[in-house]
Amino acid sequence: MNKFNATKVLAGLVCFAFIVSLTGCQPAASSEKTKPVNQTDSAGKEDPADLLKTGQGISEFSCTVNTILPGGKSDTSKLWFKSGNLRLEASNPENGEKIVTILNQTDKALYMCQPGQNTAMKMPAEGSNITSPKEQLQAIETGTMKFLRDELYDGKKCKVYQTGDGNTAEIVWLLQDKGLPARIETADDRGKVIIEYKDYKFDKIDDAVFKIPGGMQIIDMSSRQIPTS
């Protein structure tokens, strides 16, 4: 069975959903922009493994993440990734307060920070299911990928593939020049989840981005589990 399914996509949203449960914030709606282009015979014969390999070779980047949940609720956040470390910044829609999630592989910890309150919750990194777009691609079994079309998505040339089994429909838009996802769309009996990755930047990222600011009160919740539903 293909491991890249609705559960895996939703797992990347656990951070936001958990913080929402604490703050009571409700996300606003967002829009989509796609522009199909003509499919070519040569594009359909390309091996997607080569494109995915290109994405796996990128060790650090930042991007904007737009997440659209079933029912139209959405969230926009900023993501930084470097060698397995991850930082995700979002704002509370009600009061604009910054909410920061940091996955630090050196500490083997996941931190959920509220800078306005100078507090951070610490949880084990293992089993957190917080993933970057690069890591989500690692779950794709290339043998199940079916080429659909070439598409200009958000101004970027993409290869669009379908993957999954009979219970889950999955479509991924891969940047033609980078092998990273521009959009991941998953639909199952719970509804459709859309994740858009925009404004990629590939500049060097300081290691301090993935550290907790000094003086912040850390609440250790290592004995508890992150909710997954």
Question: How do the strands of the widest beta sheet line up side by side?
Answer: 1-8-9-10-11-12-2-3-4-5-6-7-13
Mean pLDDT: 77
* CATH superfamily placement: Lipoprotein localisation LolA/LolB/LppX
Tell me the count of domains.
Answer: 1
Number of strands: 13
Principal-axis shape? globular
Helix content, binned percent: 10-25%
- Which percent band covers the strand fraction? 35-45%
For this structure, the CATH topology is outer membrane lipoprotein receptor (LolB), chain A
Explain what the structure shows:
The chain is mainly beta and 229 residues long. It has one domain (6-220): outer membrane lipoprotein receptor (LolB), chain A. The chain has five helices and 13 strands. It has helices spanning 6-11, 14-23, 41-44, 48-56, 133-137, and strands at residues 34-36, 60-68, 74-82, 85-91, 98-104, 109-114, 119-124, 146-153, 156-163, 169-175, 181-188, 191-201, 217-220. The radius of gyration is 18 Å and the shape is globular. Residues 1-44 have low confidence and may be disordered.
